[in-house]
């Protein structure tokens, strides 16, 4: 159950209060979060006026995955990197929009991985989009150059992760490994204010989220799980509802709050699916586990996968624990058949 909130708590107040629970905390992580939140507020401003100024449409370049880049993706990327560079706590940034590591401050303790704008195909049509971030402590010694090993850490090493959802309201949802907390941006005061503390996701949900247009290309186990979701079974509350926005942040957030499963499975063409391990799947896996949910690639826990490259993709089954376990059973049954 979520705790009742009285009065107004800004995210910065909340972070400071939490920091006091850790007497040896130096405040660096809090400052890093502050910088990410500042960037998010600026990006929110840009997203909100996207219909007014000439920042819509294709940027005319392609990102390292060969996908079309919208102008706002680049702006968000620049905003985060510039703010983190000025903040001194961040040693390097891994971003969806940059093929290589962005080296910032050798004296920084942290590595930030991010998808600066997720769901960018929805920008032009005024549908929810998001920012995803993930924070690691560097392994190499502070003051020395960042290494590839620093940037290829498994998700279990994350010290914080979260997202900003630019939706009908703008929300920040984050974890530092002590539960999942959500803050809503109050534009009148320009602050993210605590709206849900200690979010738990239902063990069973009634929503499945997958791009069913690709169903013919899915493995048999996933096709069979989708059929299972659609079957009539009163005792088990099936059929489930199908909901798919096409913005991972928005689909994830809805399922986190209501209960559900999000799947981006492998296809014959893309054996590793579409979503990226380091800056899309790991942060969401950390959040969902902190909320009592589950995230796997069909067989392996997402957060235990050791990345071998910055932009590695991974199939993902994420959401309510019992729904993900059930989907895994279908995947396993196919392998054993
Ligand atoms: P991005 O805009 O950062 O490239 O991410 C898009 C992702 C994700 O947000 C979404 O869930 C997924 O792509 C949708 O893909 P399909 O259109 O293939 O369903
Ligand atoms: Mn994305
Ligand atoms: Mn993106």
Q: Segments where pLDDT lies below 50 for 5+ residues?
A: none
- Ions and ligands: 2,5-anhydro-1,6-di-O-phosphono-D-glucitol, manganese (II) ion
Strand content: 15-25%
* CATH T-level topology of the largest domain: Fructose-1,6-Bisphosphatase, Chain A, domain 1
Gyration radius, to the nearest Å?
Answer: 19 Å
Q: What is the mean pLDDT?
A: 92
Describe the main β-sheet briefly. Answer: 8 strands, mixed
Question: What is the number of E strands?
Answer: 15
How far apart the termini lie comes to 41 Å
CATH superfamily heading of the largest domain: Fructose-1,6-Bisphosphatase, subunit A, domain 1
Taken together, the total number of domains comes to 2
CATH class of the largest domain: Alpha Beta
Describe the structure.
By secondary structure, the chain is an alpha+beta fold. It folds into two domains: 11-196, Fructose-1,6-Bisphosphatase, Chain A, domain 1 (2-Layer Sandwich), CATH 3.30.540; 207-336, D-Maltodextrin-Binding Protein, domain 2 (3-Layer(aba) Sandwich). The protein contains eight helices and 15 strands. The chain has helices at 11-20, 28-48, 71-87, 148-151, 220-230, 248-258, 277-290, 321-336, and strands spanning 58-62, 68-70, 90-95, 102-103, 110-118, 129-137, 158-166, 170-175, 180-186, 191-196, 207-209, 241-242, 261-264, 294-296, 316-319. Strands 4-3-5-6-7-8-9-10 form an eight-stranded mixed β-sheet, sandwiched between helices. Strands 12-11-13-15-14 form a five-stranded mixed β-sheet, with helices on both faces. Strands 1-2 form a two-stranded antiparallel ribbon. Helix 5 crosses helix 8 (321-336). It is globular, with a radius of gyration of 19 Å. The N and C termini lie far apart (41 Å). The mean pLDDT is 92. The site of one manganese (II) ion has 4 residues, from strand 5.
